[in-house]
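Why show two proteins at once? Because comparison is the fastest way to build intuition. When a single record is shown, students tend to memorize it. When two are placed side by side, the eye starts asking what differs. So, the first record is below.
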Amino acid sequence: MIPPFPDDTFPGGDTEPFWFLGGRARILVPGSKSNGALSVMEFFDTAGHAPPHHIHEDEDEIWIVLDGEVSFFVADQRIDLHAGQIAHGPRGVPHSYLVRSETARMAVAFAPSCIEGWFSANGTAATPLDEAAAAFDIGDVLSSAEPFHVRVAGPPPTEKGLRS
């Protein structure tokens, strides 16, 4: 396990956590701090969490597993990772992930930046007192993705799909 990032990881940044698609997220390095070159986010998800397969037309994604076990799906390849390992999701290529451990924490870099605006716009503020993720409307989240050049390419991966 790689220790959690402190609240002041990026001095002057807004690292307040929010719920996104049932997981907890926060922006560690906003694109505004890198002149749009990149952004870095942290995601904390529970077992079975998986976003729909999707494509980012504008940015590459680098996933760094900080804690837990996660399967990444990039095009037709499955990559099983644990803490300290890294995977790459190239722009224009369908990808997703599935949390295989009880919980998982990842740092994700996006280059260039901008996509963090979509995540935060569709998030709900999280507090340390929250016992469960905030409800969300997947239709609203997906319909807001078009201006960020993100599109769904298939359903989320599942544990059942891993065994078949």
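Second record. Ask yourself what differs from the first in the token line.
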Amino acid sequence: MGKNTEQGLGLIECLQTSDLFAGLGDETLARIAALCQTEFYQAGAVIFSEGDPADKLYVLIEGIVTIRIQPAPGGKSFVVQPIEKKAGVFGWSGLADPSIYTASAVCATDARVIAIDGDKLMALLEESPSAGLVVMKRLVAIIGDRLRRTREYLKEDVYLASYHF
């Protein structure tokens, strides 16, 4: 993995197209961009692991990152959500207590992501309550969507496992 503190128009445009930050004002986006680092990962790399302390939020620039859970300690993990849409947000635990990642993020392909320090982003959002409210409402929607998709995946998996061929 390599890190870079890329800034500029491309970074702000990527943030603007994310479900989490779309529609925020230019000044707020510029302040968020100042907290960002671009990180590069090779296919197969683990960005973070389930149970790790969550200190960052991520936005996909390019590539595919899979969100994986491991239902039983020492058991097999499985993909519950691929993040393949540019500007897709993952690692939301970096913004939510108890700040522990609830899943792992593994690169299915080479990937370039934006990493945002969760504590610094929360401090910025507390300084601007109107932007903070927008971001937190959108975060709740993202979490709800992931929960619904994970539930659908698990229901399908249980159905297939119970089907006798």
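One difference worth noting in the second protein: Confidence is low (pLDDT under 50) at residues 2-8.
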